[in-house]
């Protein structure tokens, strides 16, 4: 049990550190993956009886890790943290504070290590605590049991990732371009205009691109990355309103593997002499594929390339 002691002045001291380990019947990379995105953490990062209705994860050193844990009584406890070290698949370090009504109650400094044991993984969680509100010392006292039931949930998540699964995620991005809506719409619907910005980054070779932008029409683009992997975008359009809106669904494949199915909505509205573009995507990532925010990041990069292609055309 972790316990807090107090000085003679009543100031809180660090509680006794916690160490808890669990063996998982899965390789290190897969167990590490379960820590790497909001979609995964929402499935398991809370004690039994709690839920995670919200989570924001920027999985990189210096990135945020904000998780809302909701009690059975409906009270929300926010864990607001920052990643310190990410060394896949061996080690993860982050610092997080439990925040209630805007005030930090205690801070946990967490180190997670992943050791291979044949085809299995021994994962060890080490936490050091700083108590800011003595009333929450009981929460730290119960950390061992809380982690035990949390790791029970992690076991279920690891098993789910290994099997067939569907993980949902959504995002909305907004850009304002110095070009009229008709010109921005053309950049999405005219093959020559779209070719100027709709492609992968460095190390990407476009293999083919065809498009027929109308209700029921299809668009398909494929390319090979430096690794040799071929990615394929295959879309069907459902709603096309000139200069205002596009709605389409698309599949993404890596080689012969379908990794996701998504619904995308593009809305264009005048913004002074320019155009405000709002892109909303709702995605389903399939059978253990871990997006870890890559789709949102990649879409943002494409929106920036679109802006560069429009420069000087307004």
The CATH C-level class name of the largest domain: Alpha Beta
How many structural domains can be distinguished in the coordinates?
A: 2
CATH topology of the largest domain: Alpha-D-Glucose-1,6-Bisphosphate, Chain A, domain 4
Principal-axes shape call = elongated
Number of strands: 14
By CATH, the superfamily of the largest domain comes out as START domain
Order of helices and strands: EHHEEEEEEHHEHHEEEEEEH
Amount of beta strand: over 45%
What is the percent of helical residues?
10-25%
- Radius of gyration, in angstroms, nearest whole number: 23 Å
Low-confidence segments: 1-13
What is the averaged pLDDT score? 89
Q: What is the CATH-assigned architecture of the largest domain?
A: 2-Layer Sandwich
Widest sheet, order of strands:
1-7-6-5-4-3-2
Class inferred from helices and paired strands: alpha+beta
Straight-line N-to-C gap: 65 Å
Number of helical regions: 7
Main sheet?
7 strands, antiparallel
What can you tell me about this protein's structure?
With 314 residues, this protein is of the alpha+beta class. The chain folds into 2 domains: 15-162, START domain (Alpha-D-Glucose-1,6-Bisphosphate, Chain A, domain 4, 2-Layer Sandwich), CATH 3.30.530.20; 166-310, Alpha-D-Glucose-1,6-Bisphosphate, Chain A, domain 4 (2-Layer Sandwich), CATH 3.30.530.20. The protein is 22% helix and 48% strand. The strands form 2 sheets. Strands 1-7-6-5-4-3-2 form a 7-stranded antiparallel beta sheet. The longest helix has 20 residues, at 143-162.
């Amino acid at each position: 049990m972790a316990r807090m002691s107090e000085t003679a002045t009543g100031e809180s001291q660090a509680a006794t550190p916690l160490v808890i380990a669990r063996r998982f019947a899965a390789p290190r990379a897969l167990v590490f993956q379960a820590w790497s995105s909001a979609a995964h953490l929402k499935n398991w990062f809370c004690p039994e009886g709690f839920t995670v209705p919200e989570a924001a994860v920027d999985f990189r050193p210096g990135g945020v890790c904000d998780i809302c844990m909701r009690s059975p009584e409906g009270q929300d406890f926010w864990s607001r943290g920052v990643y310190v070290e990410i060394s896949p698949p061996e080690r993860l370090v982050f610092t997080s504070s439990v925040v209630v009504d805007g005030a930090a109650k205690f801070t946990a400094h967490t180190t997670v290590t992943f050791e291979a044991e044949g085809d299995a993984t021994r994962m060890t969680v080490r936490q050091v605590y700083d108590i800011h509100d003595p009333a929450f010392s009981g929460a730290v006292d119960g950390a061992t049991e809380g982690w035990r039931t949390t790791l029970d949930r992690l076991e279920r998540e690891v098993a789910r990732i290994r099997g067939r699964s569907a993980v949902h995620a959504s995002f909305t991005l907004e850009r304002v371009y110095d070009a009229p809506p008709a010109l921005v719409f053309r950049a999405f619907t005219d093959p020559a205009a779209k070719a100027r910005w709709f492609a992968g980054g460095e190390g990407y070779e476009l293999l083919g691109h065809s498009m027929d932008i109308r209700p029921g029409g299809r668009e398909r683009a494929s390319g090979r990355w430096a690794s040799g992997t071929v990615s394929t975008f295959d879309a069907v359009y459902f709603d096309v309103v000139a200069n205002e809106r596009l709605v389409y669904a698309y599949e993404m494949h890596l080689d012969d593997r379908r990794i996701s199915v998504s619904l995308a909505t593009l809305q264009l509205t005048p913004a002074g002499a320019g155009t405000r573009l709002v892109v909303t995507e709702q995605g389903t990532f399939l059978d253990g594929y871990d997006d870890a925010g890559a789709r949102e990041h990649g879409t943002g990069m494409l929106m920036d390339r679109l802006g560069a292609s429009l420069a000087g055309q307004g």
